[in-house]
Design a protein that fits this description.
Blueprint lengths: L1 H23 L7 E6 L7 E4 L5 E4 L3 E4 L5 H14 L8 E7 L3 E5 L5 E3 L7 H7 L13 H33 L16 H69 L5 H81 L5 H4 L1 E10 L4 E6 L10 E8 L12 H4 L1 H4 L6
Helix pairs in contact: 4-5, 4-6, 5-6
Length: 420
């Protein structure tokens, strides 16, 4: 009987503690609330606190919830019903349906957002996130890490050579000729892979040059046709202009003879009709000449644009490839430095070197301001907290003992193992 009473007492204390936390809990974006209004068909319902810190309720619209507790929000909703004269004496109850999550990042196994529960500490949060990431505290096997780094370096080396071959191909394309592959291919791969890379770039060069030459040939042929058309129309216009001038002389002669009474009006009218017809044909020919000249200018413009577009495309591709090559070479240097470090100091590592010191900080926002809090594993977590976990090694990655002689103490360096 006494044991039963004791158990019930513990349960009561835990429930009271949870209720106390819930009563003092203030809402913010991401909280899911359950709102009940006695006697209203639209209720109960669950609502989410939005980015503005508000909830949207039937009949009432938006109600500010950020920074309020369950009691304060219940009173605010009651006041809204009374103010809008919808319910004279409403009974409103607000409960927490689901707390907004907390976030954990840094050197944990599974960073991300997780559901919040009242009373959890940083220790609980670390457990939920899978604990510390193994590599963060130095739990890696040097031999396996060396194998991985060598594989990465080999892939980077072949990527570096591929980019160099592409640069050579782009340079050859800009000069409209075949390219010569750069010397010193990486030794990590056999000749077939190198030959495949060169053959692939050569095929791209041939295809691009063929397409470019076809486009240029078509545009040049169009320009030649436009020039010939313009020449023919110009010759036709010149011929018609001569004929029109002859007709004008004949018309003037007919008018002069009519004044002397040597010809009739009928002869003059015939000459006028012939002259008018030739002038109309001349105007039509002049229009055709303008159109032919415009077509020739358009063809010249298209040809010029094609040359410029091809040059700009080559410049852009060359710049992009140079940037990629620079990044790849930077990664190669990083991997080489890391290999050098492991070869040089891997055997000298002690548990103290590998064991890191944990640094925990919490970014927490309230109604007034945001705070950065230095925490430990016993610090209580609040909903919406952003926990940053980092492991700071006691010895820096590039901070070996000052008295260590790198080449003398490690035969792997002397034998050139880093470059293998």
């Amino acid at each position: 009987m006494l044991a039963t009473i004791g158990t019930l007492a513990v349960v009561f204390v835990l429930l009271a503690a949870g209720a106390s936390r819930a009563d003092g809990y203030t809402f913010d974006t991401g909280d899911i609330l359950r709102v009940s209004v006695i006697g209203e068909e639209s209720y109960p319902l669950e609502v989410v606190v939005d980015d503005r810190g508000s909830i949207s309720l039937p009949m009432l619209g938006d109600i500010q919830a950020r920074g309020l507790t369950t009691v304060a929000l219940s009173q605010a909703i009651q006041h809204a019903f009374q103010q809008q004269k919808l319910i004279l004496k409403p009974f409103v109850k607000v409960e927490i349906g689901q707390y907004r999550p907390f976030f954990i990042s840094g050197t944990v196994a599974h960073p991300g957002s997780y559901p919040f529960q009242p009373g959890i500490t940083v220790r609980h949060a670390l457990a939920i996130a899978g604990g510390f990431r193994a590599t963060a505290v130095g739990n890696t096997e040097p031999a396996l890490e060396i194998a991985d780094l060598r594989s990465i370096r080999a892939n980077l080396a072949i990527e570096e050579y591929r980019l160099k071959v592409r640069l050579a191909r782009l340079q050859a394309e800009s000069q409209n000729k075949s390219f010569v592959a750069p010397p010193d291919p990486p030794v990590e791969f056999g000749g077939k892979l190198i030959a495949d890379i060169i053959a692939s770039e050569q095929a791209q060069l041939d295809a691009r040059l063929a397409a470019y030459r076809d486009d240029i040939s078509y545009l040049e042929a169009s320009l030649d046709r436009a020039k010939k058309e313009a020449t023919m129309v110009a010759a036709s216009r010149e011929e018609r202009e001569k004929t029109a001038n002859i007709q004008l002389e004949e018309l003037q002669s007919a008018r002069s003879l009519r004044e002397k009474g040597l010809v009739t009006n009928s002869n003059v009218m015939t000459a006028e009709r012939a002259h008018t017809s030739y002038r109309a044909e001349l105007a039509q020919t002049e229009l055709q000449q303008q159109q032919a000249q415009q077509a020739m200018l358009n063809a010249e413009s298209e040809l010029r644009k094609k040359h410029q577009s091809h040059e700009m495309d080559l410049i852009a591709q060359t710049q992009d490839t140079q940037v990629e090559l620079g990044k790849t070479q930077s990664q190669i240097r990083y991997v080489a430095d890391k290999l050098l470090f492991i070869f040089t100091y891997g055997e000298q590592r002690t548990f103290d070197d590998l064991q890191g010191s944990v640094k925990i900080s919490i970014f927490r926002r309230d109604q007034k301001a945001a705070h950065d809090i230095v925490a430990d594993e016993n610090t209580e977590v609040r909903a919406g907290d952003v926990i940053e976990v980092s492991v700071v090694a006691n010895k820096g990655f590039y901070a070996p003992d000052s008295g260590a002689s790198t080449n003398a103490q490690n035969p792997a360096i002397q034998s050139g193992a880093v470059g293998q």
